[in-house]
């Protein structure tokens, strides 16, 4: 199957319950209640079990750039298989293009400062992270819980902020229609002010994933 840059957005446009953000700068969709509460709870338990401090490809020398904790979620776990199947049905991207599912946990005061999910062509980390699998194409992110205060995801250039909410999916195309990277996807996982925030993230690549 040849996966074109445009075919994913077209498919997402046809999915019931998925809303497309009105914007000519980026392709971004949201869906409330995508992940059922029991599955959100299972995924949170897995993140609690396996979390470790997050790393970041290029933190611009700022140790506080991404202060959350991360974990890779093993593909053979039943909860992971369940959400992966739901994502594949939604977007139609063959699973071979996907990186392993990741979980993030933000405690009070933690954040992920403004960044893009793609690697900047020609940037310091590009060769290291993209030579085998190509750059990131689509991001699918799911909030697993309601957060008492803070923890929104802000797309400054697109002028849009999303509040965390149990089961809510956000997804966006990191590329422009012509194939280059889209700087308007810049986003900020804002500080959690009260409570704990859990998300999972699925990133897809231009070529089949070779980790
Ligand atoms: O937690 C958020 O709101 C954003 C997370 C994010 O941008 C990422 O993991 O790449
Ligand atoms: Fe991100």
TrEMBL record:
Transmembrane parts of this sequence: none
Gene Ontology MF: a single term: L-ascorbic acid binding
KW Metal-binding (keyword) present: yes
Annotated keywords: Dioxygenase, Iron, Metal-binding, Oxidoreductase, Vitamin C
InterPro entries: Oxoglu/Fe-dep_dioxygenase_dom, P4HA-like, Pro_4_hyd_alph, Pro_4_hyd_alph_FE2OG_OXY
Keyword Iron-sulfur among UniProt keywords: no
All residue ranges annotated as the Fe2OG dioxygenase domain in the record: 96-206
Cofactor(s) essential for the protein: L-ascorbate
A Pfam family per the record: 2OG-FeII_Oxy_3
Protein name: Prolyl 4-hydroxylase, alpha subunit
Organism: Erythrobacter dokdonensis DSW-74
Lineage per the UniProt record: Bacteria, Pseudomonadati, Pseudomonadota, Alphaproteobacteria, Sphingomonadales
